[in-house]
Amino acid sequence: MPLFFPSIFAIALTLFSSTATLAAEEEKILRLNVSPQGYPPFTIVHADGTFSGIIWDILALAAERKGYKLEGLEIPRKRVDDFILSGHIDATPRAIEWTSKPERFTFTEPLVEVQEVFFKRRGSQFEYTGPESLAGKSIVTHLGYKYPTLEPMLASGRAERFDVQNERDMLRYLVEGKYHDLAIAVREVGLWHIKREGWHDQLDYAPQPLSSVEYRLMFNKDNEAFVAWFNDELADIKRSGELEVILDRYR
Prior knowledge:
With 251 residues, the chain is α/β, with parallel strands linked by helices.
């Protein structure tokens, strides 16, 4: 009898430990900032509380292979860096060029290239050939964003900026008003809103970009091992053609 009890206890303890370990593995969560109201088509917040988008789909595909559950959090832009540094969130989509003191963070390899372009009314003859081509123009810009290339033109008053909270409303000012000539937005973001709002007959864009950067995921430096693994997985996703499948969903 004394031999039987320890055996049962040992078995129960082993089963409990295995169950606890499995539960811990099942609870692995990767927290991604998707931004308030999202940043479509890169991160999209749906009315039912689910998420999608180019960045979301890429990370979800990779995370699933490592046994992580991807969780979306809508963090205001001004708080994101502090939340990454404190560990309250794990990652956010970001270009190195858009980051203050980027050396504080670790970045993945590029997921996609993004370009800021000038949207205009269809039929407009405007072509961007450099800052001087904006002389006399009123430009709808994103509130809080900086445009270093254009700063001399804006500071001198040779071009005018009009700040708006989000890209959809920026484009709406071009559609509904006649007081502004152009709007600056990431090409894919602008095209997403044009498609959703049915503005194809009203809006177009100048192909020459104002800027071009590589969109990555930004992590706390404590996650460098995960970032190294993700970079390998991202390379596989690109080689396999899975990235193109994801991009096609949002074109």
